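Can anyone check this?
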Amino acid sequence: MSVELSGFPTLKPAIITKVDIRDVHDLGTIHNGSKLSHYGTPTGTIESVPGFEPAFKANVNFGADWLSFDPDGNHARIDLRGMARTEQGHAIDFRYTGVIKMRPEVSKIFNMDPDMATVPFGHATGSHTFLVADPALKDLENNVFVSNGRIAVTEKGLVVETRQSLVVASTVMD
């Protein structure tokens, strides 16, 4: 006899964010034994996927990731914060926290190995929050978003890409 589980949320594809990694500043080992690095992410894009409301496109104009690497080297902790501006001129404060599984192919990127390559989705998961003043974008503040992330190696440098889904509450009762 199988039991059907109920009450769990579902996910609705919502937003794709791409931020360009530029300057890297290593802070070193901090009080908890983690290695902390600052990755500047000064440019990029945030765009809703077709069918998601509110629909918007924005350009990143400031950002940075305070990325910490666990002492055992198995995981890294994302703490990315940034600002973007929509095509209509409205500001979006965006934040992304998450965990990266430090597989060998991922480590190659952070070590800047010459044979590094784009890693697929599946090594990084996270959650996203937004702060906005534009009433048309308030649903971004008032919902929960989760994501898969990856790092793309391009001819212009490294790009962090996240595909974010809206968490949709279940209405099914046990």
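Reply from J.R.: I decoded it. Residues 104-110 form the longest helix (7 residues).
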